[in-house]
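Let's do one together. I've listed all components of the complex below, 384 residues spread over two lines.
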Amino acid sequence: MQPEDCGPSEDAQLVALCQNGDCAAFDRLVTKYRNQVYATIYNLVRGEDEAWDLAQETFLKAWRHIAHFRGQSKFSTWLHRIATNVTIDWVRRKQITAGVEFDDTLAHTPIAAGSTTTPHAAPSPEQAMEAGEIQARIDAAIAQLSPEHRAVILLREVDGASYEEIAETTGCTTGTVMSRLFYARKKLQTLLRDVYETL
Amino acid sequence: MKPSESPSATPSEPTFEARMTAWIDGALPESEEAALLAECQRHGISLAQLEADRLQTRQLGNLLRRHAAATALNPLPHADFFNAQLLRRIEEEAPKPEKAPLLWPLRRLVWGGLSSLGLAALLFAGLVFPALRQQGPPPEYYAQILNAQTADSTISAVAMYPKNENVTVLWIDGLDYVPAEKAKN
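Okay, and this is what the predicted structure of the assembly comes out as:
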């Protein structure tokens, strides 16, 4: 997620200026990372307005806490962690308000850990060939994951983050990350198998 | 039962799910691979099934990446407004310099009142009170009227001592004259 035009050393300089209250330096960091933060959040919430607002909250939270940033990780990683946590909290609050609970279990049919015979989801492959419907199917499938599972699989599969980076971002162990990844993949395989097998 | 639920597993060991994830991603060390495959075979999971699972995971990853790439083509909308809005919110949170109020707040009024009272007390103690003290104690009368009797209620008697004159004055008001024998005393 590191933009090419400038590296971590420039980030460190800008962060140091921000820690002295330099808003212009923070504005440069925002300009540098706003698209990445927005894309990350959008992948998690699947809504432009929500992603825009949550990106605002992410940068605002980063500004509030930038005095405590000690540079032990890259600024981009730290920012990514804030974005992920802000979004996970938002998704959780939204689900609580809506009275919906995530079901990360593979409830319909017990599936062995190494099983390849995951059940097909309801719509037929022919119907799923429509691009718009495929997008909707993917969105709906991702929406069925808990915020934690959603974050882990998207950080891994879309952002290409390592287990350690995901652990740092989500604040859990690499073992937990790998376990969550296992179940998130199984769940999405169950829901999207007919889609990716016919493409 | 899943292999990870084996009673022989200890909390410090990676779970079956974690090792399967590592194997699917090609991140499992070779030294652990044989043990994992043997564990899967003990639970009826063939190598062919595992390979198919790995393939499915890759297909799923490709699908998610393609989906996300379509999303990523759209950058943050209203980017300039995004920065401006953010900076405005930051400025709103920052401590603002103190402005001179149009009306003094209540606390200042209280302190102003107390200060005025204190100043007045100081002025009284420094200027007015000494002036009062300079007037001296009330006059000491060397003559005091203990009893006065008269049939005429219009006659009154007052004794006084003007300090500067150092003389006692007996003032009798209402008499037409003072008898000679009384005046001598």
